[in-house]
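Per your request, structure below.
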């Protein structure tokens, strides 16, 4: 017997509000939702020198006490640095207005004057400091929350995205400090349930290409929710948020079995997006990416504290995350106009059970 699913887009339609709600810097809030909640703030950044930067702060209350994880990854010119660390929850703090958060080794500070986010990460062998300046606006679907089983504060997911921002800062490793600049995608995600209760697998693509950008998040719900796909995507053209839609598909064209865990990992993915632009024009978008450059493969259990690792191992078997940075192509048709752009894109897929 299937359980009910209350999609944010359907709730918005019933209330007569836009499917896409535009967000500003003032709308970024840490919720620290109760129950078995996970909340994260993640930056996917394409650097002007052709490299990539990934920074994440994740807060989880699945275990007996909150678990905080900080991660930074830098890839440029043959240099690849990846570091993640578990932090004491005693050092985790949010500001009075809940717009900023910090923990030992990482702070994400809301800067309304910028407007954007100031980020400072200090890990064992890698330090990063940059300003993420929001370009145009962010968005969420409807009022932001999709509910599972029933509408209550402990059965929802929420994704708030800023699909394009400019960054400037520095990165230090091996005794060398480099100036960095580029453009990136920021997503604030709240999952108030255990991950395996919400999704079997999920994937995300984000491409920054000059004044244009495309981002798409997709995950498949478990059998108890009829394997319904939940998606959201955005299109930026000429530094303006042009379209947001939930009518998306993500198709694994070809796959390859990972012998370590048996998962069918994609080697080529095709996406489609359909809907209306924010000013009411029909649009259609297609994107494709061939996955050749694996940045990181993360055995999630291996990175977690022992008690939480055993708990998750009991709930679901082999959570893995794969991150790629490869060439992608986008063809967007807005009204009668066709726009083509491409470049290096982040692709991330996660298998949860």
């Amino acid at each position: 017997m299937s359980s009910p699913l209350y999609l944010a887009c359907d709730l918005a339609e019933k209330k007569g509000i836009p499917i896409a709600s535009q967000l500003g810097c003032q709308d970024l809030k840490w919720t620290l939702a109760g129950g078995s909640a996970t909340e994260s703030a993640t930056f996917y950044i394409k650097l002007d020198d052709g490299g990539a930067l990934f920074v994440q702060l994740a807060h989880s209350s699945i275990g007996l006490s909150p678990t905080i994880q900080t991660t930074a990854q830098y890839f440029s010119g043959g240099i690849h640095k990846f570091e993640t660390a578990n932090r004491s929850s005693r050092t985790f703090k949010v500001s009075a207005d809940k717009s900023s958060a910090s923990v030992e080794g990482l702070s994400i500070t809301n800067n309304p004057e910028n407007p954007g986010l100031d980020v400072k990460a200090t890990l064992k062998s890698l330090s990063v400091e940059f300003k993420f300046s929001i370009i145009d606006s962010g968005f969420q679907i409807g009022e932001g929350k999709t509910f599972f089983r029933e509408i209550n504060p402990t059965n929802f997911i929420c994704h708030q995205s800023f699909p394009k921002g400019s960054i400037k800062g520095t990165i230090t490793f091996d005794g060398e400090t480099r100036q960095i600049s580029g453009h990136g995608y920021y997503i604030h995600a709240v999952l108030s349930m255990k991950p395996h209760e919400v999704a079997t697998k999920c994937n995300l693509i984000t491409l920054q290409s000059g004044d244009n950008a495309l981002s798409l998040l997709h995950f498949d719900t478990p059998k108890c929710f009829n394997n319904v796909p939940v998606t959201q995507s955005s299109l930026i053209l000429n530094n303006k948020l042009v379209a947001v839609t939930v009518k998306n598909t993500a198709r694994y064209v070809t796959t390859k079995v990972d012998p370590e865990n048996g998962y069918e990992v994609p080697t080529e993915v095709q996406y489609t997006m359909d809907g209306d632009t924010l000013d009411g024009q029909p649009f259609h978008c297609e994107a494709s990416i061939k996955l050749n450059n694996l940045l990181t493969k993360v055995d999630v259990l291996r990175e977690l504290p022992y008690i939480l690792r055993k708990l998750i191992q009991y709930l679901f078997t082999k959570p893995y995350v794969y991150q790629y940075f490869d060439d992608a192509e986008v063809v967007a048709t807005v009204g009668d106009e066709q726009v083509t752009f491409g470049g290096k894109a982040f692709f991330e897929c996660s298998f949860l059970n």
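Helices lie at 8-15, 195-198, 306-315.

Regards,
D.
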